[in-house]
Amino acid sequence: SELIRGFLLSGMPCPSSCPPGLLALMAPGLALMATFSLPSQAGDRRALPVEKPPGVKGRTLILLDVNTKSPVRIISENFLSLQLDPSIIHDGWLDFLSSRRLVTLARGLAPAFLRFAGKRTDFLQFHNVKNPAKSRGGPGPDYYLKNYEDDIVRSDIALDKQKGCKIAQHPDIMLELQREKAAQMHLVLLKEQFSNTYSNLTLTARSLDKLYNFADCSGLHLIFALNALRRNPNNSWNSSNALSLLKYSASKKYNISWELGNEPNNYRTLIGRSVNGSQLGKDYIQLRSLLQLIRTYSRANLYGPNIGRPRKNVIALLEGFMKVAGSTVDAVTWQHYYIDGRVAKVTDFLKTRLLDTLSDQIRKIQKVVNTYTPGKKIWLEGVGATSAGGMNNLSDSYAAGFLWLNTLGLLASQGIDVVVRHSFLDHGHNHLVDQNFNPLPDYWLSLLYKRLIGPKVLAIHVAGLQRKPRPGRVIRDKLRIYAHCTSYHNHNYVRGSITLYIINLHRSRKKIKLAGTLRDKIVHQYLLQPYGKDGLHSKSVQLNGQPLAMVDDGTLPELKPRPLRAGRTLVIPPLTMSFYVVKNVNALACRYR
């Protein structure tokens, strides 16, 4: 066994005399990283020191094997989903959701949920009017703005004439005026956010039509969060406005799932009056009763309570909710933001301690949910790198991808069924698509994930040389490795293939040798790196050395892999994210859906 250990640790090929079950003999020295086969191991990220045999020099070679017999988790086909904030009503972007370019970008991430919710959910009022603007004329101080509003009306009229999926081609001048309007509104929205004081928003029937058209055209399933802060004198939920919205949606036969409210733990700071978990549970039961009265939504899904970070008071709220309405919701939801966007630095996105903060939250949520409704699905909604709208050149840069990809891997490995990314398009800097409708680094990362990653999560086993920990100091993994069955929707790979995705936070390259069932298989590399002189701050990326950009408004680029010869060592460049499809593994766990 000492001889075998020496060969493994040195990275030398094992002679033919090595017995079967080689890696099993190394079990005491394995360092399980990123994806664990047991939930109890998920939060233990300490590296296990591996003793060096005499005469073996330290190397960066790491041996990697995957359990291909059965998945440790199976997540939703819609695991990576999207969010739109109601602020798009305020700043005008909702009127541009019919843009061919936006629809093309959203289609690339289907199938997925589209959650319409955010800070302004509980200030949203529905009015069942089409609200067409009247024709304007004559130059004046607001002539261009008036012309812009008229252009919106003309665009709406043209859309109304289309059947089925309604797609618009907006003139450049119209988009330029919209960006000017949005820039002005951005300051207003930020002021509201920092003061935690929000103005009421009106959602018209026409606006709801545009929202649903975008979701439907893009292959996304709409989840609409209703206003929970319309309260009766006894603090129960006033459902009259929600009922009006439900009836209109049903009349249009819109296929929608529902939520009630957003971060109910913050209601006291918003309106000076709190809603406890028990009352919120009763409100959800009331909403479920409303849905059952409307034939279109009698079997609609209901999700909640969308609490904030699970601190002590929030856990108490969740417990009160689960006692009353745990069986009423189809999934339990919460949300998480890693950093205060006002003080974020690029080095924050490289801190392993920050990447690991989510594990503790997952355990807290799972403990409560499993106490009251064992086996109930759990979703993380409204997740983003930073709060407070994010920071330009940080939360919308390549660097933010380390948090995003690790979030996807960590949640999948711990059995969280769906993660909803805030936001697809909005006024801040946490979005996937900017206001020129150009995809940002996290969009391309999400697109690769959708194309390559299937819902079956696999356990990995890693062995390699680790530096010896100092007394009392925990070594956190700067090399994160996750494994899934390759997506069944990707017809470039036969069933039974496996996809690895790897985050290298080291400032040096790392070498990985595939072992066991992965040994001597052809591998396709998808290496995502920043493009241009801005480095980690870059808003552009390259895939295997080729910059990524849309071909035209209706076409996404081909994501071309770099084939690696069978048996070749994987070389992971420093500060990068990458995907590796191991072809023709014929993994038992991945043969069938």
UniProtKB/TrEMBL annotation:
InterPro entries listed in its UniProt record: GH (IPR017853), Glyco_hydro_79 (IPR005199)
GO BP terms: extracellular matrix organization
Any single GO CC term annotated in Swiss-Prot or TrEMBL for this entry: membrane
A molecular function GO annotation: hydrolase activity, acting on glycosyl bonds
Pfam families reported for this sequence: Glyco_hydro_79n
Lineage: Eukaryota, Metazoa, Chordata, Craniata, Vertebrata
Protein name in the entry: HPSE2 protein
Species in which this protein is naturally found: Chroicocephalus maculipennis (Brown-hooded gull)
Entry similarity comment: Belongs to the glycosyl hydrolase 79 family.
